[in-house]
Amino acid sequence: MAGRDSLPQPPEQSPGDTGAGDDVGVRLKAVRKLYGWSQRQLAGRAGVTNATISLIEQGRVSPSVGSLKKVLDGIPISLSDFFTLQLDGNPQVFFRAKEMPRVGEGSIEQRLLAPDNEEPSLSLLYETYPPGSDTGPELLTGEGDVGGVVISGRLEVTVAGESAVLGPGDGYCFSSCRPHRFRNPGEVDCVLVSAKSHPIV
DNA sequence: ACGCCCAGAATAAATACGCC
DNA sequence: GGCGTATTTATTCTGGGCGT
């Protein structure tokens, strides 16, 4: 007689060793490690046994929705967040100067933070404008918003016909679709940190 | 303390059966 | 045929124990 799980299983798979089960197990293990808990610690928080956690993580069982919810009750994470969580390992958090590649061309030095982030929601640049350098005679346009804060030196920013010379501590923020241009009118390098809400590369 | 394994209990779904 | 109940079966889950 058929049990409650009458779906045909590939011969090489053991009972309960479904792809979905693997995924849940891998996710559960990743989330548990994220919080630095042992199987017993998580089991204690969730009100289940450590064996249950072990079986789920190994993909030996495909937990019911009720059981999974019970386990996740022991973790500060919702069911939806659990299934949408990115498991690409621990993304790099800190970056040394030498790990920030130079992007763009010309005399202006622009170094991109988190270059390995394939789909960034935010691009951060460490920029150095030598004296007299600028982004060119043609006004720039793009997508998203841009913003920045001058660290040292002076920076002339022109946006849609309006210009201002910014010094240390000053900043700018505008929609990149507005024609704009940057120039260093000073005698020393201008260093700033800028951000763009659209990928640079 | 950790993760894993095992045997048994509990649970849920499919099926069989009897009654109307 | 439709409905309710009993039985069967597969799966999940627990408690205890093992090796590291």
From TrEMBL:
GO terms for cellular component: cytosol. InterPro entries: Cro/C1-type_HTH (IPR001387), Cupin_2 (IPR013096), Lambda_DNA-bd_dom_sf (IPR010982), RmlC-like_jellyroll (IPR014710), RmlC_Cupin_sf (IPR011051), TransReg_Diox_bact_type (IPR050807). Residues 28-82 form the HTH cro/C1-type domain. It comes from the Bacteria. SUPFAM superfamilies: lambda repressor-like DNA-binding domains, RmlC-like cupins. It holds the Pfam family Cupin_2. Residues 1-23 are annotated as: Disordered. One of its GO terms (molecular function) is DNA-binding transcription factor activity. CDD domains: cupin_XRE_C, HTH_XRE. Keywords: DNA-binding. The keyword DNA-binding applies. This is HTH-type transcriptional regulator PuuR. It comes from Microbulbifer aggregans. The gene is puuR.
